[in-house]
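Hey,
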Amino acid sequence: MESPELSFTLAYFVFSLCFVFTPNEFRSAGLTVQNLFSSWLGSEDVGFIQYHVRRTSITLLVHSALPLGYYLGMCIAAPEKNLGSFHQVSDSWRAFLLLSLCLQLTSWTLVIYWSRRRWHNHPISRALQSHIQPPHSSWGSVATSVNDEFRRIDKFATGAPGARVIVTDSWVLKVTTYHVYMALQTDCHVTVTESRQHQLTPDSTSPAQILTLTVGSINPAVRPFDIRLISTEYAELREKLHAPIRNAANVVIHQTITELFLETFRAQVDLNRPYTLPSGQEVEPCIGCMQAPAGTKLLRLCHAEGADTESECQQCFCRPMWCLSCLGRWFASRQDQQRPETWLSSRVPCPTCRAKFCILDICVVH
């Protein structure tokens, strides 16, 4: 029969490991620093920088208290050791207690130092100070810029809470347990350095390719940092990232069938006849993404191209309302996913008026 001391040690070790490297089960149960101290941390959407300054500080304090918690737990689990009496415990337990207290005291001292001058000494604040340049006159102004862009819905965000990657219009951010790495898009360059194949992932049973990218900056005060993402998210990252991406390791990046189709789709549409807007008509934003201009118009041209004598395509009378990317994704979503070889020759309904069209009927607006 196992002793209470061994049982508690194993249980506390597993709990501590899961609390620091939080699995989905702990996150679902609310056993995270973010959830336990949510009332003090505030909202990430309201103040991204302020939230993570507080989060990293309280995380350091809580994690450094785990050894002391183990000692206090052993006082209950193994009362015969007399751990509650400092003078009666063995030298090894006395040394463990002193180290635990020193670790907790050091953490509190460090957090108090960080909090001086309104958190001016915090590592995240120091990272922001590296980016003080016009039009920003202080690190608080830089923080406001990051907060404003994080609130936008068009940002790219991926990864687990302990290693999140966020790309906004001006910033590349990596959120870790104890720090937030950041680089200005105008100053940084990204390099694909490594690729790993994983047969199983937490979110899928199919194999996944994990890419490692190094974000460097021409700003000497900004240290390079690595970000990781699944290869299927690489295309979305590339669309949001304005900085150049180099492939130093000659990594072959696997794409989804939809992404491969979109590349062919764009190439084919570029060969079609362009559409010139009538005078006085302006290009509106795409109603699918509300970001890119509506750069496509559907015209029944396949019969003129000689594709079919009796074409099933219909005339669409809608004004330009969709960008090429959104229309391509709509086209792919209406296909038989088991027969990708038929996608280019298929016909789908217009997403607005339901008139059938094929790829030859799509014109780029000039």
